[in-house]
Design brief:
Elements (H helix, E strand, L loop, with lengths): L2 E7 L6 E4 L10 E6 L1 H6 L2 E3 L1 E17 L4 E4 L5 E6 L6 E2 L4 E6 L1 H32 L5 H25 L2 E3 L5 E4 L4 E6 L6 E2 L7 E4 L3 E8 L12 E6 L7 E4 L2 E2 L10 E8 L10 E18 L4 E3 L2 E9 L2 E13 L2 E6 L6 E3 L3 H8 L3
Parallel strand pairs: 1-3
Antiparallel strand pairs: 1-23, 2-3, 4-25, 5-15, 5-20, 6-14, 7-9, 7-13, 8-12, 9-11, 10-11, 12-14, 15-19, 16-17, 16-20, 18-19, 20-24, 21-22, 22-23, 22-25, 23-24
Length: 362
């Protein structure tokens, strides 16, 4: 491999004045440069190190709701919406009234509730009386068991209608309020004043707790060998270009998506600041450390010239050399060298372009 050397002499001349040596027997691959001490002091180097090569894979992804924290409210009764108290995107609290509806079904259930509540109170009094009479030997065990059975039946009937009415509260004007079943944000709304409510219709609203979201990344077949569950990932978005969200891959699907022809990698993200919005596009970066030891240097040390890569190596305080290198790959600010550089060689990482230009002056 051809290399070029430069000998830097500390003469007090201009910042960087290069000239060719003349005379017989002079190696044409070597040039001398006179450089003042000020410039020499600005030259910084770092040692080429032998390290495990890290590979980076970039995947396209999208933010989705955490399905365990989403409720789509489908009405259990028929009726008409009397009034709506929320808009799309609103934050709501559990138990907050969202809709008032008029429903004959709910009116019937309310009457049943009152009736079953009365029956339950009667059964409780009868059971108390039966227990006292049984203790006084005035009632048989069979009659006591019958009283217990009546109480259980009354309790079951009351509990059923109570549970059916639980999402609703009865108002003095004859309407019923539908309350938010959980705290979160309204992410879909199909309810407006005067519209009908039907048990076989679309959900009236969807509430999502956005404190955690899913990142779904597309994994193509060619990338399967690099993507594993438990891998650390960095996530970036166009909305926050200077911010990196760190997480791990929680699950990799074992079935290809029939339309997109990809596997889906799932990443569960905490989202307390609500920066990640559903349907937002993201970039997912994965790092994989191989067991292959490779020479590594900062990518800034590379010089690209004539479709080739070079580095400037410092052999001594006043002796520098330009070396052509073959790349193995890149990872962020690190480049891996296949050939042309040895471990512990000092590579120039500042003003290397000036030195390289000086080496190549005719």
């Amino acid at each position: 491999m051809k290399t070029k050397k430069i000998l830097l002499l500390g003469f007090p001349i201009i910042l960087f004045l290069l000239h060719s040596c003349s005379g017989k027997g002079t190696d044409s691959a070597e040039k001398q440069a006179e450089i003042n001490p000020t410039f020499l002091s600005t030259v910084k180097t770092t040692k080429a190190v032998l390290s495990n090569q890290q590979e980076e894979l970039i995947l396209a992804g999208k933010v989705e709701y955490d399905p365990d924290k989403v409720i789509s409210y489908v009405p259990l009764v028929n009726g008409i919406i009397d009034r709506s108290y929320f808009s799309l995107g609103d934050k709501v609290q559990k138990g907050q009234s969202l809709l008032d509806i008029r429903s004959s079904d709910l009116s019937s259930m309310q009457m049943e509730y009152i009736s079953f509540e009365s029956d339950l109170k009667v059964a409780e009094r009868e059971m108390k009386t039966a227990a006292e009479m049984f203790d006084d030997k005035m009632l048989s065990e069979k009659e006591l068991l019958e009283a217990q059975a009546r109480l259980k039946q009354a309790q079951a009937s009351f509990d059923k209608v109570k549970n059916d009415l639980f999402p609703y509260s009865h108002n003095s004007n004859g309407t019923f309020s539908i309350k938010a079943p959980m705290s979160g944000y309204i992410v879909d709304k199909k309810a407006s004043s005067g519209s009908p409510v039907s048990t076989d219709g679309d959900p009236l609203f969807v509430i999502a707790d956005l404190s955690s979201v899913w990142i779904i990344a597309n994994v193509y077949a060619s990338n399967l060998q690099f993507v594993k569950e438990g891998m650390d990932v960095d996530i970036t978005t166009l909305s926050y270009p200077d911010e990196i969200f760190s997480a791990q891959i929680n699950r990799v699907s074992q079935v290809f998506d029939s339309e997109e022809k990809v596997l889906k990698a799932r990443i569960v993200m905490q989202n307390k600041d609500l920066k990640l919005k559903p349907e937002m596009s993201v970039v997912v970066r994965l790092k994989n450390e191989t067991n292959k030891k490779t020479i590594a240097i900062p990518s800034d040390a590379l010089i690209f010239d004539d479709n080739r890569y070079f580095v400037i190596v410092k052999n001594s305080p006043e002796n520098f050399q330009a070396k052509e290198v073959q790349l193995q790959g890149h990872n962020n600010n690190v480049s891996y060298i296949r050939s042309g550089l040895s471990e512990n060689e000092e590579v120039v990482i500042s003003n290397q372009l000036l030195i390289y230009s000086g080496l190549n002056k005719k």
